[in-house]
Amino acid sequence: MRVAVTGASGFVGGHVCRAAAARGWEVLAFGRRPHADLGGVPYTSWDLVHGEPPGERVDAVIHCAGSVTDWGPPAEIWEANVTGTRNAVAAFPGARFVHVSTASVYDPFRPTVMATESEAPVRRYANAYGAAKASAEHAVRGDAVILRPHAIYGSGDTTLLPRLLRSVRAGRLLAVGSGATRLSLTSVDNLVRACLLATTGPPGVYNVTDSEPVTLGSALRAVLRERDIDAEPVYLAQGLAMRLAALAETAALITGRPPRLSRYAVGHLAVERTLDITRARKDLGYDPTPTAFEGAASW
């Protein structure tokens, strides 16, 4: 198997490269950064939006590149996630295309309760990120495999865990909603497993999460325990959290710095966000492990 991985200098892409190489596959890694240490996997810097395509022939492409921010200039988010995806498809004609999308394509304005793949896309989104990822899915439909993870965590995470740890203040971890809120999380190892299966699996859209949903409270306590942080989760009501997030976003527009809390983040934590992974289990042979945070002290 000769496979190209985009976004290889990032969190998910780096894990995919190492796992594919460990299987003995020939891996070609591409990313925006000038250099990346991928354990011997050959790496090429390639700007998917503005750069020239590499001109390589591969059996499959695992497209992990894109903007993962929920805050920033919409034009840049759109370019990275839509233009970049279209350019990745065009650069490898005839290859199986595996597109790493997101559960943010589901309706952000109501709870997502064991959602099946047919429930997205929707007509409106809370920000440019959700809208752009939905449009990127439309750009690759056909013979592609589209994977929809939710809240990816694991070694090397630069988004979810750092944001969580920044919320710890004076022995309290500020959260929103309720500790009983059910969430589907996706370990990076489970997502990698799905990516590799998708290179030879049937085309289609697949939710990709850990084996079962967990409660927000249990997940937060597990992370705090593994990181040896003496803090207790304190939950803000959704309405109050939304008002605080709106104020934080207004301040961010003035200062130019990302808000500590966004309405998008509140919407993903305050209500249930769970996904049905039956299709991935059946069609891809996806057999994920449970949510676990062992080893989080070194992440």
Automatic annotation (TrEMBL):
Give the SUPFAM superfamilies listed for this entry.
NAD(P)-binding Rossmann-fold domains
| Protein name, UniProt field | Nucleoside-diphosphate-sugar epimerase
Q: Can you tell which superkingdom this protein's organism belongs to?
A: Bacteria
InterPro entries for this protein: Epimerase_deHydtase, Lipid_A_modif_metabolic_enz, NAD(P)-bd_dom_sf
In which organism is this protein found? Nonomuraea dietziae
* Residue ranges of domain NAD-dependent epimerase/dehydratase in the record: 3-208
PANTHER family assigned to the protein according to its UniProt record, in alphabetical order = BIFUNCTIONAL POLYMYXIN RESISTANCE PROTEIN ARNA, SHORT CHAIN DEHYDROGENASE_REDUCTASE FAMILY 42E, MEMBER 2
